[in-house]
Amino acid sequence: MTSSLRLAKTLLCTVVSCSAAGPAFAVVTGTRDLKSTMIRDDDLFPRPAAVRKQVRFWRKIFYEYPSTTVVVHDAFDPDRVVEIIDYSPSEKNKNSFTVPRKNRDEVTTRNLKQYLSAAEHFAKEGEAAIQRGEAEKRLFEAYRSSPAALQRLYKGEVKLRAQSGLADDFIFASKNAQVHLPTMEKIFLRYGVPTILTRLPFVESMFNLRARSKVGASGIWQFMPQTARHYIFVNNLIDERNSPEKSTKAAAQFLANNYRMLGSWPLAITAYNHGVVGMAKAVKKLGTKDIGSIVETYTSPSFGFASRSFYSEFLAAADSYDRLYRQKKIPKADPTIATSSVILQHPISVAQLVQNTTLSKEILASLNPCLLDTALSAGFQRPLPAFYEIKVPKRQAKAIKLGIRTFQAKRYARR
After folding, report:
1. Same-domain check for residues 278 and 382
2. Domain membership flag for residue 95
3. 17 located within any domain
């Protein structure tokens, strides 16, 4: 599973080589064979010290810092913040414009390079480097509160990165999530998966239905094609990764399989990003399934910041959504068309559906984002497969089913 399209808007991650809510009770998946049992949420989703530290950081990103803010921080000690860069209009000139994204990235990169250079100075000169300039002073202030952190700075072992805030994006994503979460939670209950895991799309896509990554991941769950094909249709006509409901069924099965193989929800969640094989290697190497130990001590070229933070991001996203919901800060979702499912008993093309029912191509496309242009354009004559499920306006469902049956009967009669 990729997180490269994650709308967390990570600007840059550079290695310096020189060197929440109280416990609740619910019927949730609690055993390896996925039987439902009464188990505390904090037993299923533990928060050891290393995880709590990451969760604190991501809660600030999701809830406090807007997208006009960039946080320069330590990758291994995320709430050790070096600088908070504010790109919003100044207080003195409230009519000024927000710094354009291109310029913002340039400024952020320049600032980050200054801190990387300052870190090199500390690695070579120790505390004396503080005399060099403002960047060194800021860096020293960020690390001086912890002797262990300060030693990492002097040894050239720190990793710095820049992270954009997401608070305003998160509120918008929460508005979109309101539309889909009730159905998603029902699906997860059906598959015996804890419903809290329906918050993972905040991390993967910010509930952006049109999310696409450079490496081919798609939809709110950001499935790669080869993974998705085990569970749903992904071909040159249909891509069910783009359907929130169908991709959620795939995600429930995928997460359940991760859990069966790893025996722990923190590991299963992290495997969504890092892969089951990768997490199994981590467990074998360290001899533990403790997520805190893995986050804190596991090293692997592929286990970078995204994988190391994934479980904590999920917890922080769930906390932030719950907080916004309780505080009634989530805007009301836009009205949606009530829909019904229609199972196509025989192959039928979009053209034939439009010609023989009350459906229009536009309505069919809007209610079925998994239908690709190849199914909807170029004459849209290629048939959708038998037993394929489409969504239609609920008020038209009976008429549409009748139209399809009548068309199929006429076609059979002509044989």
Report:
1. no
2. yes
3. no
DSSP string, 199-234: GHHHHHTTT-TT-B-TTS-BTTTTB-HHHHTTTS-B
Residue from 114, 118, 116 nearest 129 by CA: 118
Instruction: Single out the residue of 199, 180, 214 nearest to residue 255, CA to CA.
Output: 199
- Cα atoms found within 13 Å of the Cα of residue 8, Cβ hemisphere only: 29
Q: Is 107 inside any structural domain?
A: yes
Which residue, of 272, 292, 326, is where some domain finishes? 326
Measured CA to CA, the distance from residue 121 to residue 344 in angstroms comes to: 68
Alpha helices by DSSP H, listed for 99-158, are 101-125, 134-143, 147-154
Between the CA of residue 316 and those of 57, 66, 200, 262, what are the distances in Å? 8, 16, 10, 22
Tokens of 83: 């600088």
Q: How far is CA 407 from CA 203, 343, 354, 398, in A?
A: 44, 15, 11, 14
Beta bridge partners of 86: 69
Residue with tokens 């329906």: 198
Residues 143, 76, single domain; the answer is yes
- The predicted-structure confidence for 156-176, as pLDDT tens digits, reads as follows 999 999 999 999 999 999 999
Predicted structure pTM score: 0.86
Non-local CB neighbours of 165 within 8 Å, separated by 6+ positions? 61, 64, 65, 66, 67, 68, 69, 70, 71
Q: Does 137 reside within a domain?
A: yes
DSSP three-state, residue 79: coil
Nearest Cα residue to 89 out of 98, 101, 81: 98
Q: How far is CA 82 from the centre of its chain?
A: 26
Q: How far apart are CA 325 and CA 327, in angstroms?
A: 5
Structure token pair of residue 364: 């069919």
| Per-residue confidence (pLDDT) for residue 381, from 0 to 100 | 86
Q: Residue range 233-243: average pLDDT? A: 96
The secondary structure of residue 371, as a DSSP letter, is B
The pLDDT tens digits of the residues spanning 66-105 come to: 999 999 999 999 989 999 999 987 655 555 456 777 788 9
Neighbour count for residue 125 (Cβ, 10 Å):
14
Domain end, chosen from 326, 347, 378, is at 326
**Is residue 242 predicted with pLDDT exceeding 50?**
yes
What is the domain count for the chain? 3
Residue numbers of the domain that contains 244: 168-326
